[in-house]
Input
Amino acid sequence: MDDDSPAVRASTRAVHAGHRAAEHLGALSVPIYQASAFERPVVLDGGYDYSRIANPTRTALEESLAALEGGTAGFAFASGMAAATTTVLALCEAGDHVVIPDNTYGGTWDLFSRVLPRWGLEFDVVDLADPAALERALKPHTTLIWAETPSNPSLKITDIAAVADIAHAHGVRLLVDNTFGSPVLQQPIALGADAVMHSTTKYLSGHSDVTGGAVVTSDTAIAEALKFHSGALGTMGQPFDSWLVLRGIKTLPIRMAQVSRSALAIAQYLEAHPRVHRVHYPGLPNDPGHDVAKRQMSDFGGVVSFEVDDPAAVCAATKVFTLAVSLGGIESLIQNPGRMTHCTTPGGPIRIPETLIRLSIGLEDVDDLLADLDAGLRC
Ligand code: PLP
Output
């Protein structure tokens, strides 16, 4: 298949991109090249030689990721945080200033607030939905804007094209964490982002059985910096993990369609529930991010958050929703971010209400999920 043809749609790319069976004895599934080094016919022939630098299973995944995101180069990492760390170290210098969003994954907050300042990086937290606030936050030494949309855990929406315009007018790069949207629902590079990042632990692998990360770009300088730093830091993904993510990607479009459908039904149910104070889901017409999300996403994804008194009791009461962190897998999960995934953010500028519950909608029958929530909200 010609992976580069624009006529090839997402579902076809998800199944075929990155896999050239003839290069693998015709195997329909890319083999797991579980090898640390490769015998070379001659010195310096440019082929695979050491798996930290390149590995054929990882290459297949990286080509698939690039094709799905509409970029020219993809990089697979050991985790989403390995992807984030490598990207910042590749693109920023000590003394640079970066902008991060006011709603973001707790690990991203830890990286920018507790790790990188020790290496000379300055940061400011900004509401990226407010262009004037973003303009005010930019400094002469700002080099990177880090966006996450929809955001974890409040599903806040950033207008990618608008932020890209502001960034580029100031000579600043924009990276978008596209973990919640996945490349099936949203393609930040086409909207102007310089790079897009994922925790492939989530929707891309989709089965709660692997930790991984990815970055895709169409910018040659960014690609070269990522290639060098991935090898130099040793943050790249392993062969078996790459294979698991590749296998997950093949069903990504149908999974995203089903979880988006179920999530909308669940968000509508929660919106009408007397015990629920607020629902966060960009698919709801009343959601503050709805109009932008409708413009830049083809559907709204599988994460729904809502606010309720005594969230711990509700989390403990559900039976089909499992009380666990993470998201994007086949099984539905429930958690209380303020005390779980985002427990390091209290007191800081990333404010997560203690009453917030985050749901990751899986592939179970939506009626079973609704009945389970109904029972849980009666506790
Ligand atoms: N970005 C987002 C939006 C996430 O939700 C997560 C993890 O939950 C990460 C990045 C970090 O990914 P990982 O846990 O694979 O390191």
Q: What stands out?
A: The longest strand covers residues 142-148. The chain is about 35% helix and 15% strand. The mean pLDDT is 95.
